[in-house]
Specification:
Belongs to the DXR family. This protein has 385 residues and is an alpha/beta fold. The protein has 2 domains: 145 residues, 3-Layer(aba) Sandwich (Rossmann fold), CATH 3.40.50.720; 201 residues, Rna Polymerase Sigma Factor, Chain: A (Orthogonal Bundle). Helices cover 47% and strands 15% of the residues. It has 16 helices and 11 strands. The strands form 2 sheets. A 7-stranded parallel beta sheet has the order 4-3-2-1-5-6-7, with helices on both faces. The protein has a 4-stranded mixed beta sheet with strand order 9-8-10-11, with helices on one face. It is globular, with a radius of gyration of 20 Å. The model has no long low-confidence stretch (mean pLDDT 96). The structure holds NADP nicotinamide-adenine-dinucleotide phosphate (NAP). NADP nicotinamide-adenine-dinucleotide phosphate (NAP) binds next to helix 1, helix 6 and helix 9.
Length: 385
């Protein structure tokens, strides 16, 4: 029996993870849950899974929860430190890291520092702190298994391969809801349209990132650090069917691909059972029903954010941190309907192009760049309003 803590348990990945754990309850047991503000769902999860430690974002709600579960042998903590406490809980064997944004970084590091197996969905951690995380994994003997479907695909393709034999890794992107819109139509996109992803049901931030293609840009940077690849070895193809998750070209010209149904429960299950496999929760993939698998180049004029992400991938140092911070700020502003869809890439472009790149190797440096970029981005949004 493996003990699991789920960070971000009330989110899309968190809920899917709990479904997988429930299905394999003979193998896995929930010992910790960390959520943000959805207290009602967290309470339901506590009733069902009986964890030993939970955390949420705010103190007052944690105190309410403590009163409700008094005498039930459950520790209730809160804030960033609370999520870190759940992540480093001594009984954990596996930690699923699925808090959104840079808020997931410290809890991810807390799990790595305890030498745990970490199933990583929180791509922003790798984007802002890839080299630091990899150093800590070696130092503390932790293990990182990707949950992002594209990275899980690459990880599966590479299971028995020599890293030195990889020529190129291509991540696929569905293209989001606006793949077939013309550039002029992109100006009038509403929040509702941007949140209506054609293939995946996800949290709001990652859904908007998928609509701008920033999600794929972040995934390129994530892949660089997860697999130790050079920027020139990484590419993207639009694949509207979202069946092929990634392609790995080997030095002899063979191209390995991982295909599966469009459901995050599969990569989550694989990360939890790795290196073993279990029977699927999902129906078999029927390619005769799907018929065509299409692939297209990205239109960078329509999705300029991809150029920026490539720049951050190639330049490294503090640039990916600035890219991520600016994006988190503008996506929040778009979700609050304070800016238009195309403002997202305009503002991120201005911030990244004016960012003074510097080394950012320690956690302190990373958070300095993050804080400073958020401040500059908020100032720019104020000026433009
Ligand atoms: N969804 C997908 O299909 C998918 C696929 C691949 C990778 N990912 C990555 O996985 C991560 C999560 O995505 P998601 O779609 O599951 O997002 P989501 O549905 O928005 O869920 C985010 C989770 O994080 C919690 N949270 C947010 N801020 C927090 C904080 N400050 N402290 C503690 N908990 C906090 C939320 O809590 P409350 O809801 O309680 O506030 C929620 O449980 C992202 O990094 C995303 O890029 C997602």
């Amino acid at each position: 029996m493996k003990n699991i803590s789920v960070l971000g348990s009330t989110g899309s990945i968190g809920r899917s993870s709990l479904e997988v754990i429930d299905k394999f309850s003979h193998r896995f047991k929930v010992v910790g849950l960390a959520a943000g503000r959805n207290t009602q769902l967290l309470e339901e999860q506590i009733e069902k899974f009986r964890p030993k430690i939970v955390s949420l974002e705010r103190k007052e709600e944690a105190e309410d929860l403590r009163r409700k579960f008094r005498g039930k042998s459950i520790k209730v903590t809160f804030a960033q430190e609370g999520a870190e406490e759940v992540a480093s809980f001594s009984e954990n064997d596996i930690v699923i890291s699925a808090i959104t944004g840079i808020n997931g970084l410290r809890p991810t590091l807390a799990a790595v520092q305890e030498g745990k197996k970490v199933a990583l969905a929180n791509k922003e951690s790798m984007v802002v702190a890839g080299p630091l995380i990899q150093d800590m994994i070696s130092k503390f003997g932790a293990q990182l298994i990707p949950v992002d479907s594209e990275h899980s695909g690459v990880f599966q393709c590479l299971a028995k391969e020599e890293m030195g034999n990889i020529k190129k890794v291509t991540l696929t992107a569905s293209g989001g809801p606006f793949f077939s819109k013309s550039s002029s139509e992109m100006n009038d996109i509403t929040l509702e349209e941007a949140l209506n992803h054609p293939r995946w049901k996800m949290g709001k931030k990652v859904t908007i990132d998928s609509a701008t293609l920033m999600n794929k840009g972040l995934e390129l940077i994530e892949a660089r650090w997860l697999f130790g690849l050079e920027p020139r070895q990484l590419g993207i193809l639009i694949h509207p069917q979202s069946i092929v998750h990634s392609l790995v070209e080997m030095s002899d010209g063979s191209v390995l691909a991982q295909l599966s149904a469009t459901d995050m429960k599969l990569p989550i299950q694989y990360a939890l059972t790795y290196p073993e496999r279990e029977n699927s929760l999902l129906p078999s993939l029927d390619l005769s029903e799907i018929k065509a698998l299409e692939f297209y180049e990205v239109n960078v004029e329509k999705f300029p954010i991809i150029k920026l992400a490539r720049l951050a991938l190639e330049e490294g140092d503090s640039l990916p941190i600035a890219l991520n911070a600016a994006n988190e700020v503008v996506v929040s502003a778009f979700l609050e309907q304070r800016i238009k869809f195309m403002d997202i890439s305009d503002v991120v472009t201005e911030i990244v192009e004016n960012h003074q790149k510097r080394k950012a190797q320690s956690l302190e440096d990373i958070f300095d760049v993050d804080r400073e970029t958020r401040r500059v981005t908020l100032d720019l949004l104020k000026k433009r309003s």
